[in-house]
């Protein structure tokens, strides 16, 4: 699998493009964890849009084939497609239902003569064609809200005052933008931060450092959230094969293939 970063024009919307070149491999069962990102996935003539996830999912990971997935940043489902993100939490829809046939040219460009460069060029042309000033403005506001949400120094009431909403309207807006309430979004963000630290550590895991850096109140708080989003305790996770579990792109795309 090839991972390609987006152009500067699209880096407010896209985390990365994941491109399978068609190499085959054996299928195997895997567990995929909760995540705040969403995905566009294209295989042949089919395109799907999958939402953020709030629970671990056990799936059979099929052998790879030609395919492309676009990891979208939190809030992009609402900003770009005007679909309330909470309608897609742990769900998927056929992309044709929301974009008509406009993406067919992109699919033809990708799969007629499959290559990394063709994929990236076709994807970026497609995404750029969707954007307009309204979307750009909405995206700017969503990013500002996300920065407030992930700042542990701000309470929900602080954020509501900053953006000029009541607490209730703020909760409604966060659900619509990110597909979760404020508490769950913050928990998932903390968990993702912890998993990045764990994934990047070749030696021993600095648990106390993770608890401090990711703003968990104590060890039991961390273990409780870890269990909720992975289905494992930290010890159980490390006793298995961590590299087989923390793969947000594969988790979201496979979830939708098996619905």
TrEMBL record:
For this protein, the record's SMART domains field holds:
HTH_ARAC
Matches recorded under SUPFAM superfamilies = Homeodomain-like
- Does DNA-binding count among this protein's keywords? yes
Gene3D superfamilies recorded for this chain?
Homeodomain-like
Q: Name one GO molecular function term.
A: sequence-specific DNA binding
A Pfam family that this protein carries is DUF6597
- Where in the numbering of this chain does the HTH araC/xylS-type domain appear? 139-240
Keyword Transcription regulation in the entry? The reply is: yes
| PROSITE patterns the UniProt entry points to | HTH_ARAC_FAMILY_2 (PS01124)
UniProt keywords, alphabetically: DNA-binding, Transcription, Transcription regulation
PANTHER family with a match to the protein in the record: ARAC-FAMILY TRANSCRIPTIONAL REGULATOR, HTH-TYPE TRANSCRIPTIONAL REGULATOR EXSA
Q: What is this protein called?
A: DNA binding HTH domain, AraC-type
Protein's organism: Syntrophomonas zehnderi OL-4
């Amino acid at each position: 699998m090839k991972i390609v970063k987006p152009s500067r024009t699209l880096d407010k919307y896209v985390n990365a493009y994941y491109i399978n070149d068609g190499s085959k491999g054996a299928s195997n069962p895997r567990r995929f964890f909760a995540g705040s990102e969403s995905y566009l996935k294209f295989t042949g003539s089919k395109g799907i849009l999958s939402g953020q996830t709030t629970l671990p999912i056990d799936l059979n990971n099929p052998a790879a084939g030609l395919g492309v997935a676009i990891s979208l940043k939190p809030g992009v489902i609402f900003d770009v497609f005007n679909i309330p993100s909470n309608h897609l939490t742990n769900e998927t829809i056929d992309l044709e239902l929301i974009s008509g046939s406009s993406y067919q040219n992109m699919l033809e460009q990708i799969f007629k003569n499959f290559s990394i460069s063709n994929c990236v060029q076709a994807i970026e042309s497609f995404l750029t064609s969707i954007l307009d000033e309204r979307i750009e403005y909405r995206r700017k506001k969503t990013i500002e809200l996300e920065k407030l949400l992930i700042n542990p120094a701000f309470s929900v009431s602080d954020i509501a005052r900053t953006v000029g909403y009541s607490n209730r309207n703020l909760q409604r807006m966060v659900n619509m933008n990110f597909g979760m309430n404020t508490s769950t979004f913050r928990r998932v963000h903390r968990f993702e931060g912890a998993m990045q630290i764990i994934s990047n550590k070749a030696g021993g895991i600095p648990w106390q450092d993770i608890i401090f850096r990711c703003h968990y109140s104590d060890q039991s708080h961390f273990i409780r959230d870890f269990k909720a989003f992975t289905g494992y305790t930290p010890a159980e996770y490390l006793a298995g094969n961590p590299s087989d579990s923390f793969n947000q792109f594969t988790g979201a795309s496979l979830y939708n293939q098996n619905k």
